[in-house]
Amino acid sequence: MLRWFRVHDPDGDAWYWFEVGDGGWALRQAVFEAALPIPVSDPSAPLIDGVVGGASVAASADDLARVREEFGLPGVQFYEAVYGVLSEGPVNAPESATGATRAEFEQAWHTALRHRHFSRYDTGPLPVGTRVSGTVIALPWDAGRTGLFVDIGSVAHGFVDQLDLPRNPQQWPQVGTVVSLEVTTLRVDLYSLFGWTNIQVRLRPVHNA
């Protein structure tokens, strides 16, 4: 049987939202911290009681299991860098916990996901700003269109957007070229309908001094 509740931590001014199943194990968890900026501004979005700032966690046990099965520990590290760390073991609701409906939890949950999708990722295997080298492996849309893929020796796919490449397609690096790059953001996408999972590191070229 599913239950939903939220708990306020007055010391850190944070709200912890939980969806728990049998045995009290957390199935999904969202955490909002007053000290974190809200990365997505949506003036038309309704105010949600228990959302005090930006989300530091929007983690799902099912999603984490999928990533672990497909990519192992490296995939888990990328997932936790993007979505935060899910509580381990049974979650005991304290007396101060406030019950929530499924609709209330879903609203908070999708808000947390939106926050995490637009956050800066400073932890994990490849924090934003990390310098790496990689080999161009594909220009699937031809030079000058969309971008190119780079092998950076990771379970994550490296991608360079066309906006970070020269405007002249003839100046784009060709397949087999080794390039110096900087991490700009991470993406961990899980498409439940098709059971498809993708970990992508967004990159931009840098020039060594």
Q: Topology, please?
A:
Elements: E1 3-9, E2 14-20, E3 26-33, E4 54-60, H1 61-83, E5 98-99, H2 102-117, E6 131-138, E7 147-151, E8 157-161, E9 178-191, E10 196-205
Parallel strand pairs: 8-10
Antiparallel strand pairs: 1-2, 1-5, 2-3, 3-4, 6-7, 6-9, 7-8, 9-10
Could you characterize the architecture of this molecule?
The chain starts with a strand and ends with a strand. The chain is built from two helices and ten strands; from the N terminus they run E-E-E-E-H-E-H-E-E-E-E-E. The relative contact order is 0.16. The radius of gyration is 20 Å and the shape is elongated. It has 209 residues and is an alpha+beta fold.
Residue runs with pLDDT of under 50 for 5 or more positions: none
Total helical elements: 2
Kindly give the count of domains. Answer: 2
* Rg, Å, rounded: 20 Å
Extended strand count: 10
Query: What proportion of the residues is helical, as a percent range?
Result: 10-25%
Structural class by sheet pairing and helices:
alpha+beta
Give the overall shape, derived from the CA principal axes: elongated
Main sheet: strand order? 4-3-2-1-5
Measure the end-to-end span: 59 Å
The biggest beta sheet reads: 5 strands, antiparallel
Strand fraction band? 25-35%
Order of helices and strands: EEEEHEHEEEEE
Mean pLDDT: 91
